Amino acid sequence: MILILVMMCGTIFTPKVNTYFKWIYGVSFPLLFFIIAYIHQTQDHIQENLLSKLHKEQLVKVNNTIRYKTHDQIHGRLLNNDHQIKIICKLDTFLPEKLYNGDIISIKGKASEFPKGSQYDDFNPSEYYAKQHIKYIVYTKKENVIIHPISKHNIISLSQKYRDLCLTFLKNLFKDKIHNSLMSGILIGAKQELPQEIVSAFKNTGTSHILAVSGMHLAFIYGLIIFILAKVVRIRNKFANAAITIFLIWLFTFITGSGAAVLRAAVMFSFIEIGKILQRNNDIYNITFGAGFFMLLLNPCIIYDIGFQLSFLAVLSIVLFNPIVKKIYASDYKFINYLWEIISITLSVQVLTLPITMYYFHQFPTYFLLANFIWVPLSTLLMLGGIIALLFYKLLPFVSFLIVYLTEKIIDFGLWIFTIISNLPYYFIENIYIFPEQLVAIYIAIFYLAYQIYYSIKINYFYFLILIPISTIGAGLRYLKLNGTNEFICFKIKNEDLIFIRKNNQIFSYGTSSQISNSAAKNYINQNLSKIKNHTVIDTNTTKSLNISTILKAQGTPIGESIIYQLANSVIDTIQFLPTILLFGNQIDKRKLQKTNFENYILLSENNHFIIPLNFTNYE
Q1: Residue range 35-50: mean pLDDT, rounded
Q2: CATH topology of domain 48-152
Q3: Which of 35, 401, 509, 586 would bridge 605 by S-S if both were Cys, CB 3.0 to 4.6 A apart?
Q4: Spatial separation of the C-alpha atoms in residues 445 and 22, rounded to whole Å
C-alpha cells in the first residue's frame, strides 16, 4: 500500500516545469483502471449454489450498523466459510447495544436472497446490493443475535462511536425533531430520521447535495483547519501541518460514514497536502483522476455509486466551466463578486451533473438556482454553528444553546424558502426520460463545446447535427423491438392490483386511476414509449373472476383463454378449464390454493410486480 501511495504521488503531482501534455498520463491511467473496474463489477463473484451450503447459525464480522426508526440493520461478512461473503441482517427491533466495525456476532437463521425487483422500480434492492456484491439478507429477531465480546478497536470503529456521540449531543441540543434530523444530516450525514417531506423538498429544489455530506462540506472543514493551523495555532512545520490536516479530514470522513463524495474530497485534499510536502505543483485534473483511481483501486464496486459519479462530474464541471461563466460578470464590490461566485459555481456544476441526474431521477428542479443561492450560504452557517455548538456543549453550555437558537432560526428561514418555491408555477418538471445513447450524445456535445471554447476554435454546428440521429437510433430500435410483441404486467400497489397489457406500442390499463400515478407504473409507460389507450377500473372487492381474455377480445387483442386473473377465493372452484397461468390477488387463501391441482400460478401479494412476455399469435 505504501508503494502504491508513492507511485500515486509521482503520478498526480507534476514537476514545476509546465508541459502541454502533462495531464495525459494522469488522466489516461485512471481511465484504464475505470474500464478494469467496470469489468470486475459485471462479473458474478458469488456462487449460485452457495445459499444451500450456508449454516443455520452464521458467524459474522460487523462492518457497520444502520439504526433506522424502528430497527437495526447490520452489514457484515460471514466468517464460518471459505468465501468472503457480504451479508445484511435485518432485525425486528433495536439491539440492547449498538455494534461497530470489527465486532463479532452469531446470527441464528437461514439466509435468503434479496427479492428480485424490476427495471421499472425507482429503487431495486436486489440490483442495488448486487452491485456491492451483497446477495444475501437475514431476517431475524434480536434474541437470535449473540454478541461475542472483543477488546480490539480500529479507527473506523472509533469514528463510528464518535459519530454516535455527536448524534447524541445534537439530539440533546436540538429538541425539535425536524431541527435535530436536519442538523444531523448536514453535519454527520445521518438522514434516517429526516421526514420524507423534507427530503422531497431538497430533492425537488436541486439542493439534495446539502443533506449528503459531500465535497462542499469537507472543503469547508479543510479551509477551517488550514485557517486555525495558520492563524490561531501558528504551526510553522509543514510536515506537522500536513499530518494534522490529513488526520482531521480523514477523521471527519470516517465519522460521516465515508460516502463516495466526501471520500473523493478527502483523497484530493490528502494529495494536495502531500504535494505541498514534496514541493510539487498541483494539477487539478491529475488530482481529480488520481482520486478516482485510488478509490477504484480500493473498491471497484464504487463505480456504480451515484454519489461517486455525481461527485466527480461536479468537480470536472466546476473546473471546466466555472472560469467561463465567471468571466461573464465582474463587479468592483467584493460582496457582489462573492454572490456572483455562488451563482457561477451553481450554474457551472449543473452543466455535467444535470444530464445524469435527469437520467437517474427523471425530473428537473426548475428553481435550482434560487434554492442553491439561498441554501448554500445557509448550509455554511449551519455547519459553522453546529460545529461550535458541539465543541462548547460540555465546556460552555450556554454558548452552545445560544448558537442552537440562532441555527434553529436559520433552519426555519430555509424551510420557509422551500414553502415559497413550492408554490411557484412549475415547481419541478417530472417524467423526463433520457436513454443511454442520448446521455452519451449529450456529453459528447458538452465536451466538444468546451474544447472549442477553451481553444478558441470556431464552433462547427455540423458535428452537433450528427449527434441528433445518433441520439434517436436507440428510440427507433426500441420501437422496432416493441412492434410485433406483446406483454402482460401486474403491479402490486398498496394492497391493490394494477394490470397493464401492451400490444405493440399501445398500452391497455386495468385498475384505479390513482394507481397509474405510481412511479413504477409511470416508468413502465415512459420507457415503453407508449401512452394509455384505454383504462378500465377494476373493483378489487368483487367476488367474480376477471377473465383477461374477455377484456382483451373487447379491445381487439387476441389472447384466447390462456390467462385468467382472479380476485377472490370463491372463484377457485368455478374454473371450468385449466389456464396456462393463474394470477391470484391479495385476498386469496393460500391454504385453499394449495389444495388445488394448479401448478402454474403466481400470488401477486408475494411480488411488487412482475412481467410475463406473451406471444399472442400462439393463441389466435
Answers
A1: 52
A2: OB fold (Dihydrolipoamide Acetyltransferase, E2P) (2.40.50)
A3: 586
A4: 25
